[in-house]
Structures are given as C-alpha cells and as structure tokens.
C-alpha cells in the first residue's frame, strides 16, 4: 500500500519513519504550546508534561493519529481542521477517562481547574483544546510534514531512518525512565 503525502508516495516502511518524526515533532509542539499557554494564563512558566525532555507524549500520539486519519483529505484545509479537532478530542477524552477510571484517579490534565475551559466535558476535554488540536492538524499538514519531507529528501534513505529512529528512541527512553522512576517512587 502506498501513502500519498504532499504529492509524494511512500511505502509503509518509509511512512513508519516519517510517522516517528511526526510523533516527536507533535510532542515537542505540544510542549511549546502548553509552556506558552500556561505562561499567559497563570503569569509564570511551568514545566508541563511528565518526561524530562521538552515533549508531551499525548501530543505525539495525537500527531500520529492525525496523520493516519487525515492523509487522504490533506488537500482540504477545512477537513484537516475538523478531522484533527474530532480525532484528537476523542483521543484526549478516552485517555483522560481511562487514566482516571482505571488507574486510581490519575489525571494528567484537568480542564475543571483551568482557564478558558468552555465546553468542558468532565475535565477531560474542552472546546479550547479541540480548537487548538484543529489548528495543530492544519500546522502539521501544511508546515511540519513538508519540513520532515524536505529533511527526508536531503538525506539518504538509511540516514533518514537512522535520524528518525534515533530521535524516537531518545523520546521513548525518556518516557520509559520516567515510568520506571515513577513506579519506584510509589
């Protein structure tokens, strides 16, 4: 099966390595967004996320979900916005709900206590976050993916695969170390 991104076709292996980069870029983008949002909302900087690095894993998962959901409609900016809006909203709601109800009330985010939380559903998702996800989908398909494809085009296939898997490995190790330390602290 071939996947078409920005007038280029990729087999599933190449698309996998592109998706790794998309996930890391998405996680970093989420970190940047939350850093500046909470600076604006609360008046001071807060280190958001649960990892050591400048990334928030759920945004990476959301970016990959967006890519998998939207690539067929990438030429329609309105569809990109609304599919991102709904897909990431569903992801955020489901992850928040499962964490809270299946893991002893864990909340990695809670819109009940945050500013600008109109359309809040149980603290798991709100209209502001959905609108941001729609905007992120737009930025992903019209800015980030073209940058990733430009990087891919300038490198040998093996170099791009090494780069994307290396960055993803660091990201995954950061998550694993955090989970191990968190588990040992309990």
Characterize this entry briefly.
This protein has a two-stranded antiparallel ribbon. It has helices at 12-42, 57-70, 77-102, 127-154, 157-185; strands at 3-5, 8-10.
Work out the number of β strands.
Answer: 2
Which H/E pattern describes the elements?
A: EEHHHHH
Report the major sheet: 2 strands, antiparallel
Structural class: mainly alpha
Oligomeric state of the chains present here: single chain
Polypeptide structure, described:
Strand 1 and strand 2 form a beta hairpin. Helix 1 packs across helix 2. The chain is mainly alpha-helical. Strands 1-2 form a two-stranded antiparallel ribbon. It has one domain. It contains five helices and two strands. It is 69% helix and 3% strand. The model has no long low-confidence stretch (mean pLDDT 89).
List its traits.
3% strand, 186 residues, mainly alpha, 5 helices, two-stranded antiparallel sheet
Could you outline the blueprint of secondary structure elements for this entry?
Elements: E1 3-5, E2 8-10, H1 12-42, H2 57-70, H3 77-102, H4 127-154, H5 157-185
Antiparallel strand pairs: 1-2
Helix pairs in contact: 1-2, 1-4, 1-5, 2-3, 2-4, 3-4
């Amino acid at each position: 099966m071939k996947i078409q991104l920005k007038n280029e076709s990729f087999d599933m292996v190449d698309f996998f390595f592109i998706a790794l980069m998309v996930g890391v870029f998405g996680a970093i983008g989420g970190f940047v967004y939350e850093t500046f949002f909470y600076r604006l909302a609360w008046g001071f900087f807060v280190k958001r996320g649960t990892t050591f690095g400048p990334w928030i894993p759920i945004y990476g998962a959301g970016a990959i979900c967006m890519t998998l959901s939207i690539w067929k409609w990438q030429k329609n900016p309105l569809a990109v916005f609304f599919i991102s809006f709904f897909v990431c909203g569903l992801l955020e709601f489901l992850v928040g709900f499962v964490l809270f109800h299946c893991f002893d009330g864990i909340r990695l985010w809670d819109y009940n206590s945050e500013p600008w939380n109109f359309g809040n559903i149980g603290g798991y998702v709100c209209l502001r976050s959905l609108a941001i996800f729609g905007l992120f989908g737009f930025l992903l398909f019209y800015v980030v993916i073209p940058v990733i494809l430009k990087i891919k085009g300038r490198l040998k296939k093996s170099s791009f695969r090494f780069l994307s898997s290396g960055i993803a490995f660091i990201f995954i190790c950061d998550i694993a170390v955090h989970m191990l330390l968190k588990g040992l602290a309990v």
